[in-house]
């Protein structure tokens, strides 16, 4: 969801219309990985189970979008025995999907066979009415992306289709021939509507946001202009280090000789800013 | 290996000593993922098998460094039934290791129990003589990082230890009490010395380098100063798209409406420059 | 659960006290794998999430028992990033755990570090009061085995401990020093109490039981004596074949030549009775 | 391979032509899992790499047969990013493949798209000349099953095809239109011809065989008739327990109370004979 606001910030900045400095915390490594990759890896399973009691083993699933959210969903579903394919517009993400063992397809090529359709694109009308018409009976459709426009739900509010609420957050859309499509959370975010977010993930997100605000407030004049900035690497690393004790993780320290060899400060930052 | 040269370029640039523009192709997404993550995922298994015929199942392995190379090694070894733990200096990478299911330890805490020790840090003296002294009989030591200094091999060329070459690229270092440590490729890069690199990966690396040179040559004066640049996103995506047909992957195209909604050109680039 | 009754049947039979023929449907391959392995692979995650909203990534988990249920639990938890170790009494299952990448430990060696303790043994007092005393604050304890005796819950109903119901099926047991252990379903079966069973699995189990009854009823006199029998292989295969269309699976048929070469009937059974 | 001889023994026994007692060591759990499942999980990767240097990521692979050998091959290839489907004649194994996330197909449905074809059936002519004719250029064909008849190699020794040996154990079969199929080990067992067998696995197999011979030699007259017997469970467990120290595995012991509750001897056997 935050991705959408960040995109808007960059567009404002490019257009010269941003009137304060802004910190893009969404793309800090820690936030990205936890809120998107790791959290969705768990909530896709949780959200589907709580709403539909589906058995994952052997299910044919298409995931639209192989960004961090899509990667999380695919990993979890594959691990539990689903047969997963993906759709992508970006050749880099598509190539990653290939190397991770997922077939890259167009949605219309596979839509008839799918048991579950999941959107994680940040875009709109990724699942169209025409594709909803072609789904098989019992197909589950849900959205893990950014807003309720990824699935064209509006097109389903139409006189020839009957909606039947079968459980909280679960609607059956019934076609004239009796076919049912199972729509979750009316196309809104599954992970927010039908699953819970672990406190650990909230802690990481909140810490990142708080540190960004403190940095903007304390920064000497001139450090930040009316632009969008990534969280300084060192703060990103600080957020991570605060959360390590939870896992009983033991960090290694550089020796003086090693730090010198690498040209690094012993306390970090350890990676260039662009590193993910 | 390239990571090392890139680091030096940035240090030169920072010191104001870089006298030409330079393109950091090593950190293009495509290069990073293929040369480091995906390629090492395969070559760690291949390199160990060809040299030692080790059975992976149930082996206790410590991987030093959880960057792209370390991630590749850990994924493959875990998948084949090894019990893997990691060491890290960077809290962000350490946190990722936790979430991926690896214990984060200090090398000296676990060294006595390990069957295999693998370095992927880009640093020096990561495995010291003291730690080599504490390894158990039959422990295998190898390097997937950047140079032959990660393992302190020099310290093993010492009169009280006997070297026995048992096979090409495989030395037994014999302690006075009869303990043997199996050193691969004399501490040089295992993936280059004892495994092969798939032509597909070479093709990606070579394409990236060629495009970077063409860009630097063709760029209008002033586009690049005496600094280090990341490969433009669009070229990175172009390299990926050239390699997709190999996998029979079918890319989805944005509709006009979708492209407008996202503020994207239909032909890319699809992601901000910092995206990995 | 059924395992327990089957054990009793064999004990009756051995003692010469069984007065009717009995069919051990629990150990048919289809039933075993679905009800135990595949179903528990999903319900361990579901049961833990619905009761505790736990994040699996990085959690230290010990699974007591590496039979089919334990294997299912371990696979799922490992896939979602938990760090899993197991306990076993049977050297064959212990060896399988090693080869699947799990450390085999005694419960008392690891109990202090664990975030989650899961029992799947079919035995009693697998988790004792002494071990409950040594768990860390917040440790979750639950049972996926056969009855509510695997965890010594009775020992927790004691004046020095306070029970606090925090949610349906979730109790906090509070020690005098403030330590809390999270007990799920009061030690009863987590998969039955806090998760749902997919209709597909119920269908397999019910089909198996129905066919076994029909066989016992229709069998010519003398085919079955007062003993315990495994479901005939052919029926086991029949149950499987009835459920394949669900997955759009296409079975291959033996040619006459191949059937002859293998000494098999083209319609099965395809494996000896002892095959799993 | 042994599976074949065991099958013949059972056929002899059924025909009343077996003139000595025989022990089916092939189907002891320890032997089965190590020689077939765990060993093949590693040797399929090793055999393919050493002969062809193939990159596994993104490759389309069909595995014929989902017994223990097939399961091992599929697990390893999937883990390294290959896209794997399987063929089966047995509905039980087919259902397992579905639940493990593999599409179950007929070979002729997919043969045109495959990058690698692997046979693990124990049967003959599983890959026919007609299917070899339809493979795409560069397709790799190999056999992990029981004899060199699984692939119809004889049909390739035909005047219109050219054989070119490109490396030890690797032949290119060249069609008149220039298409090349890569045949490994002339269709003989890949794991024996192009990979190595870990000493650990040999130790398990040899121990099992030795114990079986000792048992047959020492058994009081009348214990074994002219029939085929499975290795007594207790010996199977003994073999496993001898190999556990290798993994630093710590077995749990039953208390007297627990043994009584389960109706077990504290020293085993711990499972009924039919348990796998």
From TrEMBL, chains A, B, C, D:
The keyword RNA-binding does not apply. GO terms for biological process: one-carbon metabolic process; S-adenosylmethionine cycle. It holds the Pfam family AdoHcyase. Keywords: NAD, One-carbon metabolism. Its cofactor is NAD(+). Residues 36-197 form the S-adenosyl-L-homocysteine hydrolase NAD binding domain. GO terms for cellular component: cytosol. InterPro entries: Adenosylhomocyst_ase-like_sf, Adenosylhomocysteinase-like, Ado_hCys_hydrolase_NAD-bd, NAD(P)-bd_dom_sf, S-Ado-L-homoCys_hydrolase_CS. Belongs to the adenosylhomocysteinase family. This is S-adenosyl-L-homocysteine hydrolase NAD binding domain-containing protein. It comes from Astatotilapia calliptera.
């Amino acid at each position: 969801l935050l991705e959408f606001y960040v995109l808007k910030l960059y567009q404002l900045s490019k257009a010269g219309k941003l009137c304060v400095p802004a910190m893009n915390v969404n793309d800090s490594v820690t936030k990205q990985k936890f809120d998107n990759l790791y959290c969705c890896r768990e909530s896709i399973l949780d959200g589907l189970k709580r709403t539909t009691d589906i058995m994952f083993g052997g299910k044919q699933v298409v995931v639209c979008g192989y960004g961090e959210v899509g990667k999380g969903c695919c990993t979890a579903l594959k691990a539990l025995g689903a047969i997963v394919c993906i759709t992508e517009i970006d050749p880099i993400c598509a190539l990653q999907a290939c190397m991770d063992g997922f077939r890259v397809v167009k949605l219309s090529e596979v839509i008839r066979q799918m048991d579950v359709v999941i959107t994680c694109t940040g875009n709109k009308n990724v699942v169209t009415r025409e594709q909803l018409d072609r789904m098989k009976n019992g197909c589950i459709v849900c959205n893990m992306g950014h807003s309720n426009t990824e699935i064209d739900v509006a097109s389903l509010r139409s006189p020839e289709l009957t909606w039947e609420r079968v459980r909280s957050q679960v609607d059956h859309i019934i076609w004239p021939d009796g076919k049912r499509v199972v729509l979750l959370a009316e196309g809104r975010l599954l992970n927010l509507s039908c699953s819970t977010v672990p406190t650990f993930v909230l802690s990481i997100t909140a810490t990142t946001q708080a540190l960004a605000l403190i940095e903007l407030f304390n920064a000497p004049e001139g450090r930040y202009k009316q632009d969008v900035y990534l969280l300084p690497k060192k703060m990103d690393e600080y957020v991570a280090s605060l959360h390590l004790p939870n896992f009983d993780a033991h960090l290694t320290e550089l020796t003086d000789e090693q730090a010198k060899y690498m040209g690094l400060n012993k306390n970090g930052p350890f990676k260039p800013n662009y590193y993910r």
